[in-house]
């Protein structure tokens, strides 16, 4: 069964390819794609086919997907362009007769107020309308995104936000990549499924501060700000207006519990507990 992975030049996609190889999936049945293929030249050395595929270039997508039984569409990074880009990938997959498309979406994309969800929701709708056999992996928050809290804690003994006592059920990128590899290796049982994938444990920023304190061997405090105070701090740190609004909205989403669900589907898929946030941060130290 031949598998094509988009976004393999990025962090999640590469980990998916690595995970497929670790599981014994034949390298000759894997095609790794992205725009900047120089970053995955080492995968070619290991027998993986490497092809350039740009979501803005439908012909490159058709070429990359031709002959694939399964395609993993890793959501892109260009906010505001992604619905069209993902639509190009879905159309290309349909056009060349891909058997099964797996898409990395966002938690409860169909009903959440999460600031990032609308493009994922629209992509899921395109997928449903495409008639393609598909699986949606609604990936939760990455542990790695707490690296900034780690760095602030290390430098100042404190980090700040406006998420209140909201909880985040984050997981390591590697956990989510492994789940994708499990599905790609045997997609049929997952046809039509929407998997909500999140960490086993949902933590508050106060709990993260306590864990960071233990990790760093110093006192670490979480300073909870009002959204207005948070805006002022972020703008003072030099962030542009759109980014400030994005970060503050995201913290409101966390406060509202939009990233807190712990259905346990991810650990079930990968057959082990998910990686606690502090373990991922220990690895980043
Ligand atoms: N769950 C979360 O916490 C979370 C957090 C951040 C992002 N995400 C989403 O999850 C995705 C994967 O995360 P990641 O950490 O692996 O991100 P990443 O390291 O930034 O990788 C993004 C990948 O998307 C590819 N890409 C972007 N625009 C493209 C285009 N026009 N055509 C083809 N490929 C394109 C990039 O390819 P090139 O570099 O070769 O162009 C890269 O391989 C992200 O793209 C984003 O949609 C999720």
From TrEMBL:
Its EC number is 1.6.5.2. It is an enzyme of class 1 (oxidoreductase). SUPFAM superfamilies: NAD(P)-binding Rossmann-fold domains. GO terms for molecular function: NAD(P)H dehydrogenase (quinone) activity. It comes from the Bacteria. The keyword Oxidoreductase applies. The keyword Nucleus does not apply. Residues 7-187 form the NAD(P)-binding domain. Transmembrane segments: none annotated. Keywords: Oxidoreductase. This is NAD(P)H dehydrogenase (Quinone). It comes from Nocardiopsis terrae.
């Amino acid at each position: 069964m031949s598998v094509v992975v988009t976004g393999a030049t990025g962090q999640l996609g590469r980990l998916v390819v690595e995970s497929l190889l670790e599981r014994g999936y034949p390298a000759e049945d894997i095609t790794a794609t992205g725009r900047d293929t120089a970053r995955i030249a080492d995968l070619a050395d290991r027998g993986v086919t490497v092809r350039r595929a740009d979501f803005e270039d439908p012909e490159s997508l058709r070429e990359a997907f031709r002959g694939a039984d399964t395609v993993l569409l890793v959501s892109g990074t260009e906010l505001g362009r992604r619905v069209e880009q993902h639509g190009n990938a879905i159309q290309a997959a349909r056009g060349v007769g891909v058997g099964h498309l797996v898409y990395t979406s966002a938690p409860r994309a169909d009903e959440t107020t999460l600031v990032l969800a609308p493009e994922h929701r629209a992509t899921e709708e395109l997928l449903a309308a495409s008639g393609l056999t598909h699986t949606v992996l609604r990936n939760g928050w990455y542990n790695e995104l707490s690296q900034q809290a780690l760095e602030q804690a290390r430098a100042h003994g404190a980090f700040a936000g406006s998420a209140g006592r909201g909880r985040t059920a984050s997981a390591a990128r590697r956990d989510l990549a492994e789940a994708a590899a499990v599905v790609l290796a045997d997609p049929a049982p997952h046809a039509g499924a929407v998997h909500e994938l999140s960490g086993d444990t949902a933590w508050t920023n106060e709990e993260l501060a306590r864990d960071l304190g233990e990790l760093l061997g110093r006192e670490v405090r979480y300073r909870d700000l009002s959204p207005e105070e948070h805006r002022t701090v972020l703008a003072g740190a030099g962030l542009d207006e759109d980014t400030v609004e994005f970060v503050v909205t995201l913290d409101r989403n966390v406060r509202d519990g939009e990233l807190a669900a712990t259905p346990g589907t991810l650990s079930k898929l990968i057959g082990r507990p998910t990686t606690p946030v502090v373990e991922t941060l220990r690895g980043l130290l």
